[in-house]
Amino acid sequence: MMSMNSKQAFSMHPILHEPKYTPLHSSSEAIRRACLPTPSLQGNIFAGFDETLLQRAEALAAVDIVTQKSHPFKPDATYHTMTTMTSMTGTPTSSPAHLHHPSVLTSHHHAHHPHHHHQPAQGLEGDLLDHLSPAISLGGMPTAADVASGASHAHSHMAAAINHAQHHHHPHAQAVNVHHPHHALAAHASLASASAASMDAEPDPRELEAFAERFKQRRIKLGVTQADVGAALANLKIPGVGCLSQSTICRFESLTLSHNNMVALKPILEAWLEEAERAQREKMAKPEIFSSGDKKRKRTSIAAPEKRSLEAYFAVQPRPSSEKIAAIAEKLDLKKNVVRVWFCNQRQKQKRMKFSATH
DNA sequence: ATGCATGAGTT
DNA sequence: ACTCATGCATA
User: Facing residues of A236 across strands?
Assistant: First the structure.
């Protein structure tokens, strides 16, 4: 069941990020917070031309099939179960992370923002064809010797907790994260921030960018993989900080996280880096043990044609109503929830940082 | 390195 | 039902 299609080409969508952040501004959230609901219409309007619009969008979307590449391999990617794994030794990447508990790093936000914004108008004419090529590449994965983590073992942890955070009041960035037993925390004094380097609270994109780069460099130098870093974070025992996935570390390094998220993670990774280097200096030895387990989740794969349609719809209306989503889902023969999540993720992507140089 | 997904916390 | 921070499963 589910739709399993395969193929996902790499299409990155155009990130239309915001113009520039003003680092010195008040909240950092304001930066990305600028979304606009645009609730306007479309409830019934669509009813009328819904079909027309959808078809039009689809038609337009269909046009751009030029660069789509098809994969020679595996037409359907969604299945295969491996019940027995545990044999991936060889690569330095530690893998299993286990742990299942959503940690909570939160950020918070408030709500007030006069949204006005541009909204991609619905002139679907050429907007659908924008595609961009991802340009990030790179890859180096030196094999690592593990030195990073501290203790090992990790399976049982149950931590729990959620914490939430914090303060608000000042328009400051805060995003503190982590889950921590029960609330509270935060005393924060805020204010006066001060300097810069090791503290947090500095919404300066350039600094983050620089740190991310340094971090990656040092990490590689230490011969530690992204996954190792994530797992090792738990050993730091920083209040509320548990481990993070390879994905998150990767995203941090490539700056593909929200600004708030970057700011929140920076001090944590910074702490790990220091600790790792210190540990390396004196001793390094810690076998890691992981056992892993089970539980496989199936990743739904949306086929290229459907994906194109979704992109077309998104260009017209990034926030379709529930009914709309249902209609689209039916049309594309996808589960409604899959479509809903796709839109959510699309919106999230659009908001991602990816600040380039500007400043 | 990324796509699809889950969940806490908001709205 | 949405946003955000994250993660598993994959390419």
Answer: none
Question: Per residue in A301-335, pLDDT tens?
Answer: 999 999 999 999 999 999 999 999 999 999 999 99
Could you tell me the sign of the dihedral formed by the alpha carbons of A337, A33, A42, A65, in that order? negative
Nearest protein residue to B5's C1' (by CA)? A341
Within 290-329 of chain A, which residues have Cβ less than 7 Å from strand B? 297, 299-302, 307
CA A164 / C1′ B9 distance in Å: 8
- Of A256, A328, A307, A329, the closest CA to residue A69 belongs to A307
Tens of pLDDT along A233-286? 998 888 888 999 999 999 999 999 999 999 999 999 999 999 999 888 876 555
List chain C nucleotides near protein: any atom < 7 Å from a Cβ: 1-11
Sorted by where each starts, the structural domains of chain A and their CATH numbers stand as 205-284 (1.10.260.40), 304-356 (1.10.10.60)
* Cβ A6 to strand B below 7 Å: no
pTM, entire model = 0.55
Angstrom distance (rounded) from CA A98 to CA A96: 6
Q: How many other C-beta atoms can be found within 10 angstroms of the C-beta atom of residue A289?
A: 10
Nucleotide whose C1' lies closest to the alpha carbon of residue A307: B3
Contacts made by residues A265-271, CB under 8 angstroms, sequence distance 24+: A265/A105, A265/A177, A266/A200, A266/A208, A266/A211, A267/A198, A267/A199, A267/A200, A268/A177, A268/A233, A268/A236, A268/A238, A268/A241, A269/A215, A269/A229, A269/A233, A270/A198, A270/A211, A270/A215, A271/A236, A271/A238
Distance in Å from B4's C1' to A350's CA comes to: 16
Alpha-carbon distance values, A88 to A99, A161, A175, A287, A292 (Å): 19, 32, 36, 16, 11
Which among A168, A257, A176 has a CA at the least distance from the CA of A212?
A: A257
